[in-house]
Every structure is written in C-alpha cells, then in structure tokens.
Specification:
Elements (H helix, E strand, L loop, with lengths): L18 H7 L1 H4 L4 H14 L3 H28 L1 H9 L4 H8 L5 H8 L24 H23 L5 H26 L14 H4 L1 E3 L19 E3 L21 H13 L11 H4 L11 E2 L3 E2 L1
Parallel strand pairs: 1-2
Antiparallel strand pairs: 3-4
Helix pairs in contact: 1-4, 1-7, 3-4, 3-8, 4-9, 8-9
Amino acid sequence: MFMHNKRLMYTVRVSEPNPGLATLMLEQFGGPQGELAAAMRYFTQALADEDPGRKDMLLDIATEELSHLEVIGSIVSMLNRGVKGQMAEAAMEEADLYASLNSGGESHTTSILYGGAPALINSAGVPWTAAYIDSIGDPACDLRSNIAAESRAKIVYERLINCTDDPGVKDALNFLMTREVAHQKSFEKALYAMEPNFPAGKLVGLPAFADKYYDMSQGEGDVRGPWNEGEQWEFINDREQQGAVDGGDGSASVSLGERDAAAVQAFAARTASDPDGNPVTGADLGAGPGAGTTTELIEDEGVS
C-alpha cells in the first residue's frame, strides 16, 4: 500500500523557465538511468527476494526512487512552466514563441506534444520502456547490476549539473546525485553480506578454464596488469593454444538420423555454388563509375 505525502523529498527552487534544460532533465525522468527505471528495478526485485533484509532495503530504496522521480519531474515542470502558459494562451508573437520552443534539444516536442508536462521519455524523445529493467532474479547478479545502475545515474547527474547555472536546480540535482552514492553503498553492503557472493549462481566453473587469460587481441597496445598477470592468471598468447581449448578438433558437428541427413544432403546439393562459374549479374549490367571491376558480357565468346 502506498500513501503519498504532498511535500517533496527535496525542495525545488527554479530561478527561471528554461525549456531546453527541461528537456535534458528528462533523461533522469524517463531515461534508462532515470528514477522510474530505478524504482521499477528495485520494486520487482524486492517482490521476489527471499531474504527479509534485502527485501526491506529494496522496498525502501524503490520507494525513495519514486520520490526522486517526483523531484526531477517537478524540476521539469517548473522549467517548462512559462512556455506551458505561452502555448496554452498564445500569449507570445509567433516568432518569439518559435524561438522559445526551439531553444535547445527536443524542447519543441515536449512543449507541443506534452504541454510542458514531464513526459516518460528520455532527452532525445525516446519513450520509456521496461526493457531498461535488467533484473535476472539472482541476488548476486541483481545487486551488482544495481551498483552499476547507481553509478551510471550519478554520472548523468554530474553532466546535468554541469549544464546549468541555476543555483536551485544545481542544489536539487546535487541532492539526487548524492543519494545515488548512498544507494550504491547500501547495495555494496548487501552484496558482501552474502558469503559467498562470487561467482553468481550455484554451479561451479570448470577449473581448467577459471584462471586462464586468453590474449586474443595482439599487437601494439598490449598491456599487462592485475587483470591478466600474476599467480592468479595463466596468460595464453600462443595462437595454437587459443583454439579448440577442449582438446577437440575445433569443428562443429551433430549426429543426424537417416531422414534428417538425407534432407540436409538434398538441400546442400540444390543450393550448391559453382566455383568455376562467373555469371554476369545485375550489378554488372547496371554498373557505373565507382562500381569497381565488373564482369563484362562478350557477345562472341559468351560470358567471361
């Protein structure tokens, strides 16, 4: 059960309308790193979590994210409030109104389509989607994903803070950014309260491959570090040892029944290519400058 308190979690003070800035702020309203995505991610995880401590934490943070959604949505509304009135009452001259609507980004879209309201879109006008939610139902996986999500959200808030000189907007954004840090700390603690927490899941990895590092990209720029050297790693840069690492021949095969094998052979025969042929194609017949070398039709000798 939810009960709404009309007081915002953080006071929103906007110095002056700015439709372009409002559009940028939508990134944290209806974008992939935004507050709605965070709230839905943590709510759905909480509903399925079997651990009472994690469930409580996820519900707390999910609910707080909804309050953050209200804060960022209020910022968008206040930044659009002037153009909202101008649009509704046609109070400006056409040229001035057009200039205001196109002051930055997709502000004309948010003004005309949504009347200055905070729409569930990102700053480029892309609608919010549940595809932003990447929960997989394993606490070790989901908590790591949550940590990464909070980190990405903090970076977006940093970029938004750098986009405005409005002291009130900066103040509210700094609060929201800081709460991303606090949530990351909670998720880190919850992750490490699970022992063990790595690797995720129940099945163990294959010992023969758990400590190998395959140097697959070789050439100028090769760098060694703790991610691929030391007692923890067996560094493999021999190309011969990078293929068929299971000891097989490195090919793909399947056992087919007699009927399937006959059908596959018939299909292969019907669609076989003639390596000795060199037919004239539509590209040859319609070729112009820039087409490169083409096959020509020689009337007295046939096709060459």
